[in-house]
Amino acid sequence: MARTEFPLARAGMSIGLLGGSFDPAHKGHAHITREALKRFGLDRVWWLVSPGNPLKEHGPAPLAERIERACAVMRHPHVDVTDIETRLGTRVTARTLAALRTRYRGVRFVWLMGADNLAQIHRWQDWRWIMDHVPVGVLARPGQQISACMSPAARIYRPYRIPGSQSQALAQAEAPAWCFVNVPMVDISSSEIRAAGKWTAAQSREGEH
Ligand SMILES: Nc1ncnc2c1ncn2[C@@H]1O[C@H](COP(=O)(O)OP(=O)(O)OP(=O)(O)O)[C@@H](O)[C@H]1O
Ligand SMILES: O=C(O)c1ccc[n+]([C@@H]2O[C@H](COP(=O)([O-])O)[C@@H](O)[C@H]2O)c1
């Protein structure tokens, strides 16, 4: 369900944060969210529907539109679709994470992302702060395996990698800690949907390709 305020969370809970443009949300997002809940033993996942990726030149569709679609795509009792970054007034992930850690003392946050973002994270603002302060869960994405595993972030933080077989330990681990899980993959992207010029309900439902 969509949150119109900051979600509640108790100290000790582990919450995965999936940030994204969600322009639009699709079944790949829903799929990695379900896998992350299982593989990283998370209590909840919050989708952070971004006001706009700091590295993308063109702004996304209006936030309300993207949130509405995200809510249609992701229906799960342990997942919240949120506009937290707009409420915090930040679109830079390191700032978002710092603000959430202050606001939710005692909550264990895990940053979630697809393998394509592990390949690029070294271009994000204060990316080393993210890696040094928040456990990171990376989910396989078609065609991204090699670039992710050879990336600067993967190389620099190799000593802190938790094997996929121990993924349940990630949320309780002290950062730096990251884990790549080789989950079954769903080959779909928002850019592909935008290029096709339409969004259909079938693109949102898991199991339909
Ligand atoms: N099919 C997928 N498999 C694995 N991870 C995915 C998939 N689609 C999106 N993600 C991840 O979800 C997060 C949000 O993705 P985003 O909203 O940018 O969707 P996208 O499909 O990558 O969009 P675009 O094509 O516009 O770049 C990112 O961490 C991204 O890596
Ligand atoms: O903080 C940054 O510099 C930064 C640069 C690029 C992307 N991000 C975040 O990465 C997440 C995925 O972005 P996107 O547009 O690929 O869905 C989203 O939460 C963005 O805010 C963050």
Parts with pLDDT < 50 across at least 5 consecutive residues: none
The coarse overall form would be globular
**Helix/strand order:** EHEHEHHEHHEHHEEH
- Helix-strand category: alpha/beta
Our count of domains comes out at 1
How much helical structure, as a percent, in the residues? Answer: 25-40%
Kindly, what is the distance between the CA atoms of the first and last residues, rounded to a whole number of angstroms?
24 Å
Bound compounds, each kind once, are:
adenosine-5'-triphosphate, nicotinate mononucleotide
What would you say the CATH architecture is? 3-Layer(aba) Sandwich
Beta-strand segment tally: 7
**Integer average pLDDT:** 93
Number of separate helices: 9
- Strand order in space, largest sheet: 3-2-1-4-5-7-6
Largest sheet: 7 strands, parallel
Q: What is the CATH topology?
A: Rossmann fold
Family: Belongs to the NadD family.
GO biological process, one term: NAD+ biosynthetic process
Pathway: Cofactor biosynthesis; NAD(+) biosynthesis; deamido-NAD(+) from nicotinate D-ribonucleotide: step 1/1
Protein name: Probable nicotinate-nucleotide adenylyltransferase
